[in-house]
Amino acid sequence: MANNAVGNNVSGQKGGVKLTKKDLVVAWLNWMYYFQSCYNYERMQGIGFLHAMSSVIKRLYKNDPEERKNAMKRHLQFFNTENAFGSPVIGLVAAMEEQKANGANLDDDAFTSIKTGLMGPLAGVGDPIWQGVAIPLLIVFFIGLAIEGNVIAPIIYSLIFYVIYYGVGYWLFNLGYNKGSEKILDLMESGAIKKFILGAGIMGNAVIGGLVANYVSLKTTVQIQQAEGKVFVLQTELFDKIMPGLLPLALTLGCYWLLKKGVSSVKVILAIVAVGIIGGLIGIL
Amino acid sequence: MSVFQAILIGLCYYLANSPWPFGGLGNYAILYRPMVSGFVVGLILGDPVTGTIIGATINLMYIGFISAGGSMPSDMSLAGILGTALAITGGIPTEAALAIAVPLGLLGSIVWVGRLTLDTAFVPLAEKYADEGKPEKVWIVNILLPQLLLFVMTFIPCFLAAYFGGQYIQGAIDALGGNVLRILAVIGGMLPAVGIGMTLLSIFKGEARIFFFLGFLLAAYFGVPILPLSLLSLCITIVYMQLKGKAGGAQNG
């Protein structure tokens, strides 16, 4: 099986070409920055993947125009994954090309199966980790300061994200180049990542709960006339006494429930707009 | 708003969607997030503090934003950039600004769909370079051409909207009167519930759920602000994970 050659030392004698550190870093940087620069419905990140492999192909097939064309064609195929967690595929495929250029028997199918076999699981871990956990947590951490007008908050947020994102990407890229695909998949399914997601989920829940109390605002202006000219103010005399933020909590859980039932976010937004207009006009909000 | 300021705001929208450093393409994290772009737009308009406040408020709506597999539910970069620009020039209160920004975000997702459709036209050129075996030319089809296209698609509409919108927004708000602004603020106050609800979709699960209520109660009854609450919940999380590890170890042993 061609796959067995991956990650092992292959003692074929063909070119004796090695990728330099610079070739690899250029490949990784081209991937990190431009992987989605020509994002399109036909190949998704296919052109971006080819761009990332350009420095590798240039080095390995310098004197082999036929194989250069073949390599370019096989890396122009459909590809779609998450940026930082997709980095090990770049490292791994670079290592495979290096072995092939040195005589290993790897056909196009071996590359395609590795790429398509990894892109799904990696995006399945990467998308939720960044967009569902890490970025929301970082944003939430700084958003309170930013809402009070602290201009340092967005700057520090950006720097911290930048360092973590590129740090994780570079680490995974090297892992892909030095180890095989099984190591990468093992890592994605390992207990450490599950633990991290659970821990981040706990912290995220606590902070998001705080956000509801602090930044969702919904107050009723309902007042009830009582006997002897007394006025019962629903918000301050009932809701605030039971639990401040009762209405925002109910509203948030209501939105969550609708979204979970599959109602689109646009429809939920429109419903809120309708409630706001009607409530505002008849004077209960 | 001067022409020059509108040009910078248009540029900001291009950069937020570009692959350049600190742009937002692919990670949707830095300049793409209204908290960051609001600060930059505020800087352009000479009021970074107000820009940050408005941008962060708009960002409340988009905390739980997820774009996976090439889908784009809403363009928060346009919501943040144009929303902040119009709110500052029109003197719109922060909460009402959110109600104006959200529809802009929905409009902006047209740019995303248009770009993924039009970029398909570059595939044959990439195939031509592959047939010729010219890896050194790939940057032309991956960066130069699609980025020129993206620049046209993002810069021009945002520049025009910022410049002309900025001229008329104040008059429009004045004409609408106080009651409309009040209703916009009511809507803007409620909208973060949708964004938070979307975040909950991905994290409100299993044993972590009770901590949502813990955080809410700490903030609602004791008024704990978000930053100390984050640190507190970090400690609680670590303790919980340690106890869980011990319980698991005892069972296994």
Task: Explain what the structure shows.
Chain A has helices spanning 21-34, 46-60, 65-74, 83-101, 108-147, 152-178, 181-188, 191-215, 234-242, 246-260, 265-282; strands at 223-225, 231-233. Chain A folds into 2 domains: 10-206, no CATH class; 219-282, no CATH class. Chain A has a two-stranded antiparallel sheet. The relative contact order of chain A is 0.09. In chain A, β1 and β2 (231-233) form a beta hairpin. Chain A is an all-alpha fold and 285 residues long. Chain B is an all-alpha fold. Chain B has 2 domains: 3-204, no CATH class; 206-253. Helix content of chain B is 76%, strand content 0%. Chain B contains 11 helices and no strands. Chain B has helices at 3-16, 34-44, 48-59, 76-90, 94-118, 123-132, 138-176, 178-190, 192-203, 209-222, 226-252. The longest helix of chain B is centred in the middle third of the chain and has 39 residues, at 138-176. At the A-B interface, α2, α3, α5, α6 and α8 of A face α2, α3, α5, α6 and α7 of B.
What is the CA-based Rg of chain B, rounded?
22 Å
**What is the number of domains of chain B?**
2
Q: Characterize the overall form of chain B.
A: flat
Strand fraction of chain B: under 5%
Query: Main interface pair?
Result: A-B, 111 and 115 residues
Query: Largest sheet of chain A, order of strands side by side?
Result: 1-2
| String of helices and strands of chain A | HHHHHHHHEEHHH
Sheet with most strands of chain B: none
Strand content of chain A: under 5%
Oligomer: heterodimer
Query: How much helical structure, as a percent, in the residues of chain B?
Result: over 70%
Largest sheet of chain A: 2 strands, antiparallel
The end-to-end span of chain B amounts to: 69 Å
Helix/strand/pairing class of chain A, anyone?
mainly alpha
Query: What is the chain-wise order of helices and strands of chain B?
Result: HHHHHHHHHHH
Low-confidence regions of chain B:
none
